[in-house]
Design goal:
Blueprint (H helix, E strand, L loop, with lengths): L22 H19 L7 H17 L4 H9 L1 H11 L5 H19 L7 E2 L5 E4 L4 E4 L5 E2 L11 E3 L5 E3 L27 H18 L1 H10 L2 E7 L6 E2 L7 E6 L3 H21 L12 E2 L8 E2 H21 L5 H21 L4 H15 L1
Parallel strand pairs: 6-7, 7-9
Antiparallel strand pairs: 1-4, 2-3, 5-6, 8-9, 10-11
């Protein structure tokens, strides 16, 4: 059970923030602090000798500089390259040695780039690739073991600024990036789709400008909760996007020529990021994950959490489209409103929410009844 500081109140405006709302800020902040506490309490007894030594090095390093540099730890855990493998371990996913290598390697590499790593720090079993997005640094591990202050200079720049807080990444170390729950996809391998990074960044800035115009408070929240966009191809006919509960703050997007489509994808996936951060603090629903229900958004039946994730994202998308009122979208807007009401009706009928989840469902009900 989380300690009292990590128990959120039932949210009133997590889907569509009211002007000046602090709801998303509070949830992201609590999720980050809880991640820090979880890291301090994480014990991994069943590791081989190299992985055990590497994990011990990380813990000793953190203990060594933690008391005087709490901001450095917050910065470290805010990076998806570190938080994603840590959450994989905390969630009990299957490939523990790979997650340990990523957690230790990316953490020590970021600290090395910050100039905070003691001289001579080594890692016996590093991951294949080191990446620190905020330093725009990435490089293959040149040898086993690695001594960090003997690493050569990083490779060419592979992180391109979209905004001051959001980067387009040409490298991705998310351990679960090649898994996907969508029936039309098989993972999210990096693919610029033959387009230059500058074209991607310009498209995403135009999409963010649309979000700013339509939903300025959502746009403000994006600066708090988004870190990376990973490109996964170009398509003029359809748009597929994804995000992962473990990699909060990372979005996987295809490039589409219509900025409205790109903006819709940003709103959709950022909604997942907010709900995924909330799920780090509260289960939200108490339904059996094995029980599946028809979803108005998908051809395949979904667990109740899948219905909630869909409703939370598409209600926000509907408000975006209503505000931007793009030409030729009247039918889509009408169909989406119908689907949203159906999803909320399913939640009202069959969901077993916690008090926090009840607050979220109340908000969705209110937004689809206006």
């Amino acid at each position: 059970m989380p300690s009292r500081p990590f128990e959120p109140s039932p949210p009133r405006d997590l889907t569509l923030p009211t002007p000046g709302s602090q709801t998303a800020r509070a949830i992201f902040s609590m999720a980050l602090r809880k991640l820090f506490e979880d890291l301090k309490g994480l014990r991994l007894p069943h590791l081989d000798a190299d992985a055990s030594a590497d994990y011990r090095t990380l813990r000793e390093t953190l203990v060594g500089f933690l008391p005087g540099r709490p901001g450095a730890v917050a910065s470290l855990l805010r990076s998806p390259t570190v938080s994603a493998p840590l959450r994989c371990l905390l969630h009990g996913l299957h490939d523990t040695p790979a997650y340990v290598a990523e957690l230790v390697g990316q953490s020590l590499y970021a600290l090395h780039r910050d100039g905070l790593l003691p001289s001579g720090t080594r890692m016996a079993a590093p991951p294949a690739l080191f990446a620190s997005p905020r330093h725009d640094a990435s490089q293959a591990a040149p040898r086993h073991p690695v001594v960090f202050d003997q690493l050569p200079a990083p490779d060419r720049k592979r992180h391109h600024p979209i905004t001051d807080s959001l980067l387009l990444a040409e490298v991705d170390t998310n351990p679960v990036r090649l898994t996907d729950a969508h029936p039309d996809k098989a993972g999210n391998a990096i693919d610029l789709g033959g387009r230059a990074p500058a074209e991607w960044c310009a498209s995403l800035r135009a999409a963010l400008d649309l979000v700013e115009r339509a939903l300025p408070d959502v746009r403000r929240e994006m600066d708090l909760g988004l870190s990376l966009v990973v490109p996964v191809g170009y398509d003029e006919e359809k748009h597929l996007s994804a995000s992962y509960r473990e990699a909060i703050g990372t979005l996987y997007l295809t490039l589409h020529p219509d900025p409205v489509v790109m903006a819709e994808a940003l709103v959709h996936e950022f909604s997942h990021a907010k709900l995924n951060a909330l799920l780090e603090l509260d289960p939200v629903l108490q339904n059996d994950w094995e029980a599946i229900h028809p979803s108005p958004y998908r051809p395949d039946p979904r667990p109740m959490m899948g219905v909630l994730l869909g409703a939370h994202a598409f209600v926000a998308v509907a408000r975006f489209l209503d505000a931007i009122d793009p030409p030729g979208m009247a039918r889509r807007r009408s169909e989406l409103a119908t689907k949203n009401r159906a999803a909320v009706a399913t939640l009202r009928e069959a969901a077993r929410p916690t008090p926090v989840g009840a607050g979220l469902i109340d908000e969705l009900d209110r937004l689809t009844s206006d």
